[in-house]
TrEMBL record:
It comes from the Bacteria. Keywords: Signal. The keyword Transcription does not apply. Transmembrane segments: none annotated. It comes from Bacillus timonensis. This is ABC transporter substrate-binding protein. Residues 1-21 form the signal peptide. It is found in: Periplasm. GO terms for cellular component: periplasmic space. Belongs to the bacterial solute-binding protein SsuA/TauA family. The lineage of its organism: Bacteria, Bacillati, Bacillota, Bacilli, Bacillales.
Length: 328
């Protein structure tokens, strides 16, 4: 993972920023790391017209995997990335001259659920020992939080499990569906869909176990903020409106709002997935990324052996925009 992000630094040095002046910015290209109801406030901001109210046109693209999402941002293929904050740390640790800044938090817990092949009525974490665990990408938030939680329950991820990590992020769910692994971490609505189809059963939530962490944030290059500060503020305001809307509306109402982004998923599964996330406080209610959550993230990365060096909160987190938006 670190070697990969080292290769991205060259892009920062040779690719010019394709940005417009503040009064000309209308379209914002977002690269999201996956398509999940975990990101419901983002979709609500689109369907309920909050971005449109701010005079912004959104072009949303799903780019599976944090490394690929960050490549899209750094190479100029996207203006904003919705991805785990760990990616900005990897880039900064390699000496970036145009740091990637976290400016608006979207989620504040892990968004994955532990699935088992069998419906375990009285699940305990020690039941994972000696099992085959279909893990996530090394150095990514799902895997690091997963290891953090496992160690919390006295399980050595690399010693007590047969840990599989050679499957691309986009193919993990299909690999589990085809019979690989006894346990797996999956996002919603895939987890609920698999449960309905009898492919697996949700037995625990990593979000409930890991505490507050900037799991997924909107981030962009410092140069983009410098040259498009008005657009970034409008973007953040639209996100905040959506967060407040999600906080004050029922899972059923939210599901109807975001349904178009999940055309192959039954509305009842979208609803139940959103309810799970709301119940465990996964959706941030405002875009301010706290220093406590930032430090918790680095502790989790350090525990997983993936923290290249500690990065000060003020170096990669800009809360001034979000604080300005919520103060009005």
């Amino acid at each position: 993972m670190r070697r990969f992000f080292a290769s991205l630094i060259g892009l920062l040095l040779i690719i010019p920023l394709a940005a417009c002046n503040n009064d000309q910015v209308q379209k914002i290209r977002i690269a999201e790391v996956t398509r999940s109801v975990f990101y419901a406030p983002q979709y609500v901001a689109i369907t309920e017209g909050f971005f449109e109210e701010e005079g912004l046109e959104i072009e949303l693209t799903t780019v599976p995997g944090g490394d690929k999402t960050m490549t899209a941002l750094i190479s100029g293929g996207a203006d904003v990335a919705l991805v785990g904050s760990e990616t900005s740390i990897y880039v900064e640790a390699q000496g970036s001259t145009d740091p990637v800044i976290n400016f608006a938090a979207l989620t504040q817990t892990d968004g994955t659920f532990l699935m088992a092949r069998e419906d375990i009525e009285n699940f305990s974490w020690d039941q994972l020992k000696d099992s085959t665990f279909l893990g996530q990408r090394k150095g990514g938030m799902p895997q690091m939080v997963g290891e953090f939680v496992l160690k919390k329950h006295d399980i050595d991820p690399h010693g007590d499990l047969n840990l599989i990590q050679n499957i691309d992020f986009a193919n993990i769910s299909s690999a589990y569906a085809s019979g690989t692994g006894d346990f797996v971490q999956l996002f919603e609505p895939t987890a609920s869909l698999f449960e309905k189809e009898g492919r697996g059963y949700i037995v625990a939530s990593f979000g409930e176990q890991s505490g507050k962490v900037p799991y997924t944030t909107f981030m962009t290059k410092q140069s983009f903020i410098d040259e498009n500060s008005d657009a970034v503020e409008k973007f953040t305001r639209a996100v905040y409106k959506a967060q407040q809307w999600v906080d004050s509306h029922s899972p059923e109402e939210i599901a109807k709002s975001v349904q178009e982004f999940f055309p192959d998923t039954p509305i009842d599964l979208i609803t139940s997935s959103i309810e799970r996330y709301k119940n465990q406080g996964s959706y941030a209610t405002n875009p301010v990324l706290s220093e406590e959550a930032w430090n918790n993230l680095q502790d989790i990365m350090d525990e997983a052996g993936e923290l290249p060096k500690r990065i000060d909160y003020t170096t990669l987190v800009n809360t001034s925009i979000a604080e300005k938006v919520i103060s009005k």
